[in-house]
Amino acid sequence: MPDRRLPALAAAGVLLLTACAPSSPDGPVDARPPGSPDARTTSSTVPRSTPTVSEDDISDQPTPAAPPSEVRPDPRWQFFSDDARWHRSPWFQGAHRIMIGFGCNPAPWYSPDLRCPDSQGFHHGIDVAMTCGTRLYAGLPGVVLDPSEPGSPGPAYGEAPFRIRVVDGTGTHDVLIGHASDVLVRPGDRLTAGEPIASASDSGAPDGCHLHFEVRSAGGSVDSAVDPAPWLQLRAR
Questions:
Q1: Looking at the record, which segments are called Disordered (predicted)?
Q2: Consecutive 10-residue averages of pLDDT for the chain (237 residues)
Q3: Which pTM does this prediction carry?
Q4: Residue 215 counted as domain residue
């Protein structure tokens, strides 16, 4: 599932970003069948608390240019978002489309969730469609968490998911990065905004290469996930 910096960022924090369809506290069940791109609509009817982050609180971070994903579309992508815009973010290279947003959605690979209407499932992050090898960056300063710490993601997030803990005016949160490869960071690393951290891949993602970006409470399971949009800082191209 804006280009700004969260207020009162502390020196130590670690963000983690995730798998697509968590169905248990240890990780999502992400069994998505291949399919051709298909623009569909999705919306969440679940009330949720979202941190208030003003644009003045986040500084501009340069985003390296790269060809947008439409140049090399992945035939496995399926879009369940009504947002057809191309977005940039300090977290990734280039401009890309949202494949699946946060919350209730009609994607067929999620188990029905009691919070959602019409037997829809619940997606705990934001999936951004991007070709394999797209460079990922630390969009905010933080600390890389050790996989042994509470809240570590399961295998549905890929072979090398990791979390970055950040502290801001709303508290301490873990950013989960899922479906990553070529990971450049290690547990305990203190990251600065704009630092390369990994590449996007299809590890653990049968629906094609993309970034799964998820935000949880510090040390929390998938059940503590919140709308990650304020941290992802998307800005329409």
A1: 20-76
A2: 38 38 40 36 35 39 49 84 93 95 86 89 93 96 94 91 90 95 97 97 91 96 94 92
A3: 0.72
A4: yes
